[in-house]
């Protein structure tokens, strides 16, 4: 794995003339609009980067975008990988390891999620302050390379408290309502049954989604400072569970995108 990370990184550095980003951003559902705010310098399709996974979904091949956002050097993953597509946890998280090798210190991640917390409403933003890994796997299983991080990484503060505080301040300044809470990550692709939503609420989760946890575990292992934000696109609140479709998730996420983009843009500026 070390050789693969090294080789990918070397090829990227060649193609970007040694561009050294400070922040990595994974654009999940609802953050696509951020790309328009970037002063783009280099675009590398995943297919051109050795050892990068390529998307199984047609038209979603994905690319790494290098440029400036709010005057800061960033690398942005447009297109992420999900466990339900058949990738392993290690494959999903591989780009995070490469971004770390390129020099990032911060990782910002976004996603769409279902909300179990009865105080939440559809369209609301939630800053992730912790997660529960309910994937039947962990990207750190197998041989550990001390160069990448410790064998038994502490997960006491995965989501950086200073970044959370700054993001909340930005939200307040711009009149954006944000909550804070716990993200439960599981495989999908099924949305949850009412009993599963109930269970997730009882074990302490506020929202549930099918991404983020693999990348964030590897980011924390690598010593990165992590920020995560979710858009609540549907509700799994006990007694009020409604039918949910992928189209609806995308529609709600798209509606809330400007808020999310503004928050991230400002956060990167103040990092
Ligand atoms: N469950 C899991 N993942 C999701 C949901 C949900 O209700 N909404 C958006 N992503």
Brief summary of the model shown:
The chain is an alpha/beta fold and about 270 residues long. It has helices at about 1-15, 90-100, 160-175, 195-200, 215-220, 245-270, and strands at about 25, 40-45, 65-70, 70-80, 105-115, 125-135, 180-185, 205-210, 225-235.
Structure characterization notes:
This protein is α/β, with parallel strands linked by helices. It has helices at residues 2-15, 89-102, 161-173, 194-202, 213-221, 246-270; strands at 23-27, 39-45, 63-69, 72-78, 106-115, 125-133, 178-185, 207-209, 225-235. It has one domain (2-270): Rossmann fold, CATH 3.40.50.1580. It has a five-stranded mixed barrel with strand order 5-8-7-6-9, surrounded by four helices. The two termini are 30 Å apart. The model has no long low-confidence stretch (mean pLDDT 94). The protein binds hypoxanthine. Residues 112-114, 188, 191-192, 208-210, 233-234, 236, 244, 249 line the site of hypoxanthine.
Separation, N- and C-terminal Cα atoms: 30 Å
Q: Which structural class is indicated by helix and strand composition?
A: alpha/beta
What is the CATH topology?
A: Rossmann fold
Number of helices: 6
Number of domains: 1
How is the biggest beta sheet arranged? Answer: 5 strands, mixed, barrel
Task: Assign the CATH architecture.
Answer: 3-Layer(aba) Sandwich
Ligand catalogue: hypoxanthine
Instruction: Indicate the percent of residues in helices.
Output: 25-40%
| CATH C-level class | Alpha Beta
Return residue spans where pLDDT drops below 50 for at least 5 consecutive residues.
Answer: none
Radius of gyration: 18 Å
The overall strand count is 9
SSE order, one letter for each helix or strand: HEEEEHEEHEHEHEH
Strand content bin: 15-25%
Strands of the widest sheet, in order across it, are: 5-8-7-6-9
- Can you say what the CATH homologous superfamily is? Nucleoside phosphorylase domain
Report the principal-axis shape: globular
């Amino acid at each position: 794995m070390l050789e693969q990370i090294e080789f990918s990184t070397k090829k990227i550095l060649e193609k970007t003339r040694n561009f050294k980003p400070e922040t990595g951003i994974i654009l999940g559902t609802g953050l696509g609009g951020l790309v328009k705010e970037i002063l783009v310098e280099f675009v590398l399709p995943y297919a051109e980067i050795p050892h990068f996974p390529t998307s199984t979904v047609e038209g979603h091949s994905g690319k790494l975008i290098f440029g400036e956002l709010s005057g800061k050097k960033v690398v942005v993953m447009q297109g992420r990988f999900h466990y339900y597509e058949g990738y392993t946890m290690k494959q999903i998280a591989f780009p995070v390891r490469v971004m770390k090798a390129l020099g990032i210190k911060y990782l910002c991640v976004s996603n769409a999620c279902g909300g179990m917390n009865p105080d939440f409403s559809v369209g609301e933003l939630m800053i992730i302050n912790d997660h529960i890994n309910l994937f039947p796997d962990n990207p750190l299983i197998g041989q550990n390379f001390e160069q990448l991080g410790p064998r038994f990484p502490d997960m006491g503060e995965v989501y950086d408290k200073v970044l959370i505080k700054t993001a909340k301040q930005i939200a307040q300044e711009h009149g954006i309502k944000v909550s804070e809470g716990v993200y439960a990550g599981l495989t999908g692709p099924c949305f949850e049954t009412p009993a599963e939503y109930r269970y997730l609420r009882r074990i302490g989760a506020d929202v549930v989604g099918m991404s983020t946890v693999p990348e964030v575990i590897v980011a924390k292992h690598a010593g990165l400072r992590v920020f995560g934000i979710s858009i609540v696109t549907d509700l799994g609140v006990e007694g009020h569970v409604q039918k949910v479709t992928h189209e609806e998730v995308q529609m709600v996420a798209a509606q809330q995108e400007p808020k999310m983009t503004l928050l991230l843009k400002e956060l990167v500026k103040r990092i």
